[in-house]
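Throughout our pipeline, every protein is held as a single compact record rather than as scattered files. The remainder of this section carries one protein's record, kept here as part of the documentation.

===
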Amino acid sequence: MRRTPMTTLLALALPLALAAPAAAHEVADPTIVHNAHDGVVRLYGAGGPDTAFKKVAEVFTRETGIKVEVVGGPEPTWSKQAQADADILWGTAEEDVTALLETYKDFAWADVTPIYVRPAIIAVKKGNPKHIRGFEDLLKEGTKIVVTEGAGVANTSGTGTWEDVAGREGRLGDIARLRKNIVGFGKGSGPSYKIFVDQNADAWITWPDWPITHPDAAQIVKLSKSRTIWRDVNVVLAHDADSEAKQFLDFLTSSRGAAIMKTEGWVR
């Protein structure tokens, strides 16, 4: 075949396009100088644990007078600020914190500490109109399911969760049947929740904190023990963190902190 200039360009560009990786985390900004010494304990991480952390922080601040700011949400919304002043980062899974440490160089892998775990669950519409009782009900024809996937471009604890649940008993057919019922893949728990509501989905494979903090729209259906997977929330201190940050983490992991965290499904 005779090559035109355009076909030559396409032939050269295609391998480059295929080889270029999608960014699954933010890129460090070399112009930002990290300085956490400002007397405020600042935590950053993905949405989910932030609501429970804020409850703990409120009690801690009331008793000690030490100000704590908890910022949760999609990483692009807080990345620049965290690179400047974060005392603590949290990861919503081990794969999540591993990705974070690619960007935030003032935090070290050796300093990461898992502090709580929570189980995957099925969130269903309030009132559970489809009468979903467990995983097998998700395989029924016509069941509309939402799952969370980073898709190579978003850092989220939900990546692979639905596949892990479906594949727990080693049956390929379970994965295939569940996949046919998926009506939306959200690149993070927040986007997944929006799809769950907007598409009037029947179920969403997620974590307990979401239906707990959105009781008007969703409720929990537990997975059987043979289907349940667990992932942790972990924390890591900056090398120059305020001394009060360690004090806050001690309270967060104390028996009192654990009692508050448990209200949103986090256990030790």
Observations:
- The chain has a mean pLDDT of 91.
- Residues 49-64 form the longest helix (16 residues).
- Strands lie at 41-45, 68-72, 88-91, 113-119, 121-125, 145-148, 182-186, 203-206, 218-222, 230-237.
